[in-house]
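Could you help me review a protein record that somebody else here produced? Do not assume that whoever made the record got everything right. The record follows directly below this note.
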Amino acid sequence: MIKHSTADIYIDERGIVWFKFKENAEITLEHGYEYVEIIDKLCAGIPRPFILDTRKTFAAVSPENRKFMGNDKNALKWRKADALLIDSLATRLLGNFYMKLDTPEHPVKLFTNEKDAIEWLSKF
């Protein structure tokens, strides 16, 4: 597990990369650059599915970071699919912004249930 100032990041036994965001994290473009370094290290050259867990928190993601993480080739090269775990209207809106405005090249879907997210990611 890598403990970043905004999230705990790790790979589980199924090979899914988890981003468990910390409460009231403010995620900037600089954090996006740091995430890419962490992803490169964790994935070790193997593309993997990702879970971005925003439950029980509110992560304020800058528009610059959303655009970078959704469009930059280095930010995307190890990501097969993103499942966004949400539990509030605020995180649903943020997830929809990411999916519609900063459209990644890989599949992205919102979930309120962890089991459903993992089942969907198993296709990738």
